[in-house]
TrEMBL record:
Its EC number is 1.14.14.17. It is an enzyme of class 1 (oxidoreductase). The lineage of its organism: Eukaryota, Viridiplantae, Streptophyta, Embryophyta, Tracheophyta. Belongs to the squalene monooxygenase family. Pathway: Terpene metabolism; lanosterol biosynthesis; lanosterol from farnesyl diphosphate: step 2/3. Its cofactor is FAD. Catalyzes the stereospecific oxidation of squalene to (S)-2,3-epoxysqualene, and is considered to be a rate-limiting enzyme in steroid biosynthesis. This is Squalene monooxygenase. It is a multi-pass membrane protein.
């Protein structure tokens, strides 16, 4: 059985798929969105929308999707380490008062986006599981999918966009992903408690990796614990509870980010390597300097400054700052060696990012061609 032909097929109705369907539908495109499960998702991803992300919602006319879901405004971060803290506000001074981060239950936000997309007359939102792409001479012509009631269907369109997330069963037919899983997040909900700084995310630089706290409703705080390794301790045997009680809980109690893109996240993790420890200390002290040293990195973190070059400059500034701490006032042979390893380690973290972004995109962005949307169909 074959369904009607549309202009664009979108596989997946998460944040990307639903937002894309809204934008395309407003342009007059006939969009068919196929989502495997239209029930409200219960996931811990995408719960903190940075100010830059909120501005994109405004651009798309979707800012009302964070209303009536008990979303909380977020104005920056509080950073904790070894009993000391540093407050890092978002640089919002020159922006509209409504611009701030938003934190919420992920599923509530997704459902608002889906309802917004489905309300457009040119958008068809359907529950179904896409099983494969339909290809002809290497060109994708559409998809095969199984509808909610079990029918095997085929949909055709000149353009198919796959947005079905990390559990995609189509990714391997489109590319050869190199997936690195250094750790897993474990999420807890704390009810009716207060954070030291209202309307702020809180990051504790714990051992072996950071712990995050942020509000997701007016009565709930999300705690995210990063557990190193590809597998988490099992819950059924009590190992997870023991890990949280013995390893994690003492550290928030003692000292009561998402880091700068995944690069600084590696820096913030504890390590026995003296060079990595020095880089970690330098990162905390650099952010604590205030001014451009905190507002610059936080503007990247918040999505207000999307330029990758800024990330690279601040990243190496932290490395140089750490090197200066080692060599001043009087360098020793051991400190020089640690400094050399610090710079080498920093380069090993940031160079893959530069390579992935592309030298041209990073350092000469004005030379990269810009692509603009074509006028809508009549």
């Amino acid at each position: 059985m074959t369904s009607g032909i549309t202009d664009i097929i979108v596989v997946g109705a998460g944040v990307a798929g639903s937002s894309l369907a809204c934008a395309l539908g407003k342009d007059g495109r006939r969009v068919h969105v196929i989502e495997r499960d239209l029930a409200e998702p219960d996931r811990i991803v995408g719960e903190l929308l940075q100010p830059g992300g909120y501005l994109k919602l405004v651009d798309l006319g979707l800012e009302d999707c964070v209303k009536e879901i008990d979303a909380q405004r977020v104005y920056g971060y509080a950073l904790y380490k070894d009993g000391t803290s540093s407050k890092l506000p978002y640089p919002l001074e020159n922006l509209h008062p409504d611009v701030a981060g938003r934190s919420f239950h992920h599923g509530r936000f997704i459902q608002k986006l889906r309802r917004k997309a489905a309300s457009l007359p040119s958008v068809r939102l359907e529950q179904g599981t896409v099983t494969s792409l339909v290809e002809e001479k290497g060109v994708v012509k559409g998809v095969k999918y199984k509808s909610k009631d079990g029918q095997e269907l085929t949909a055709f369109a000149p353009l198919t966009i796959v947005c079905d997330g990390c559990y995609s069963n189509l990714r391997r037919s489109l590319c050869y992903p190199k997936v690195d899983v250094p750790s897993c997040f474990v999420g807890l909900v704390l009810e009716n408690c207060e954070l030291p700084y209202a309307n702020h995310g809180h990051v504790i630089l714990a051992d072996p990796s950071p712990i995050l706290f942020y509000p997701i409703s007016s009565t709930e705080i999300r705690c995210l614990v990063d557990v190193p390794g590809q597998k988490v301790p099992p819950i059924s045997t009590g190992e997870m509870a023991n890990y949280l009680k013995a390893k994690v809980a003492p550290q928030p109690l003692a000292s009561t980010i998402n880091t700068l893109a995944g690069a600084l996240y590696k820096v913030l993790c504890a390590s026995t390597d003296p060079a990595r420890k020095e880089m970690r200390e330098a990162c905390f002290d650099y952010l604590s300097l205030g001014g451009i040293f905190s507002s610059g990195p936080v503007s990247i973190l918040s999505g207000l400054n999307p330029r990758p070059l800024s990330l690279v400059l601040h990243f190496f500034a932290v490395a140089v700052y750490g090197l200066g701490r080692l060599l001043l006032p009087f360098p020793s042979l051991n400190r020089i060696q640690i400094g050399a390893r610090l710079i080498s380690g920093a380069s090993g973290i940031i160079y893959p990012i530069i390579k992935a972004e592309g030298i041209r995109q990073m350092f000469f962005p004005v030379t990269v061609p810009a692509y603009h949307r074509a006028p809508p169909y009549n």
